[in-house]
Design goal:
The chain has about 180 residues and is α+β, with helices and mostly antiparallel strands. The protein has a single domain (about 5-175), classed as Gcn5-related N-acetyltransferase (GNAT) (Aminopeptidase), CATH 3.40.630.30. About 25% of the residues lie in helices and about 30% in strands. The chain has a seven-stranded mixed sheet with strand order 1-2-3-4-5-7-6, with helices on both faces. The relative contact order is 0.15.
Length: about 180
Amino acid sequence: MIGDIRTFRLSADTRIKNFDCGDEDINDFFHHDSYDYSEKLLSVTYVIENEEDTLAFFSLSNDKIAQDTSNKAAWRKIKKRFSHTKHRSDYPAVKIGRLGVSQKYGKQGLGTQILDFVKNMFLTNNRTGCCFITVDAYQQSEAFYLKNGFKRLNPAEKIKADDTILMYYDLRELK
């Protein structure tokens, strides 16, 4: 049972409760690197917990979708979303750097709730201008992001075994 939960921004004095998402890299980031990233202003990490455990966490940082990181066909699709007078060589985004859900609380829709929270956060409290959410998705997570409205930036790109997949969500689809 999840019980009462709270979501808050990680700070230097945050004591992380029991958490294991089953991925060593994501666990290590949360337990160790998230503090350093926050201190150095590289990302902001949000924690979701109940009385006993950390249920999930996610970290956000600034990003962009740029012409030089997209193939020509993908870039044309991105540019087409904007009027001709608004064409640029890049468009502002927020990156989900890490997202982890505890194995103990998996399969309860927390990942989707986190994505909905981030989407809403940048629609209602967008302080700098941001029209996309990006993520470098693990291959095993691609279906999850697709189900939640994300698209591959370069759909024809061949992905090697350990590569991540650059995906994006257009926040203007929610308006």
